Amino acid sequence: VATASRDGRVIVWDPEKGEPLQEIEAHEGGAWDVVFSPDGRRLASVGDDEVVRIWDARTGEAIDVFRDERGHSGVVYSATFDPDGELLASADGTTVVWDAANGEIVHRFADHDGHVLSAAFSRDEERELLATASDDTSVLLYDPSSGDLVAALYEGLPGEVFRVPIAVAEMTKYADNAFHGLKIAFANELG
């Protein structure tokens, strides 16, 4: 288990003892998201400092920093590895797909009208997709191999957008399933 915090730290926890195994001073400003690579060997974290940082999950040592003049220019809210751990997507007002081995940009998507708050990969027998959710209320689906926009969900639907603190959003999603949150997860990630 790993957590990202407002003070910029990433903490890797022992889930049985509830004690920190690693405390990493990860970002200047807040850390917004942290994810394990599919093999569990690396962590990717993002935050206020507009970069993606890669860490050794066991030791907490820095491995790499992904940044590029075409990369992020604002707070990075989300990071996700593809199922093979070969690609890493991160999101601010744009979504950047990186080669997870060397930090080179594979694709950059700027189709949302707002901040991209969440991204997730999914793969089935036919293809892989990258979904991105924005505070513009849309969810966009991309083919990460070609870079093509495949579909736009919720685009143009009427409805009020509520912006609330994280704690309120977390409680709302548990108390009332009528609200659509902007965190994306695919069914094949559960379990």
What is the fold's blueprint, element by element?
Elements lengths: L1 E3 L4 E6 L4 E7 L5 E6 L5 E6 L4 E5 L5 E5 L11 E4 L5 E5 L3 E5 L5 E5 L6 E8 L4 E7 L4 E4 L6 E5 L12 H10 L16
Antiparallel strand pairs: 1-2, 2-3, 4-5, 5-6, 6-7, 8-9, 9-10, 10-11, 12-13, 13-14, 14-15
SS element count, helices? 1
State Rg: 16 Å
Overall geometry: globular
Uncertain segments are 173-182, 186-191
User: Biggest sheet: strands, sense, closure?
Assistant: 4 strands, antiparallel
What is the mean predicted local confidence, pLDDT? 84
Helical/strand content category: mainly beta
Strand order of the largest sheet: 4-5-6-7
Give the DSSP E fraction (strand runs of 2 or more residues): 35-45%
**What is the terminal-to-terminal distance?**
14 Å
**What is the percent of helical residues?**
under 10%
| Counted beta strands | 15
Describe this structure in words.
By secondary structure, the chain is mainly beta. The protein has one helix spanning 166-175; strands at residues 2-4, 9-14, 19-25, 31-36, 42-47, 52-56, 62-66, 78-81, 87-91, 95-99, 105-109, 116-123, 128-134, 139-142, 149-153. The protein has a 4-stranded antiparallel β-sheet with strand order 4-5-6-7, with no helix packed on it. The chain has a 4-stranded antiparallel β-sheet with strand order 8-9-10-11, with no helix packed on it. The chain is globular, with a radius of gyration of 16 Å. The two termini are 14 Å apart.
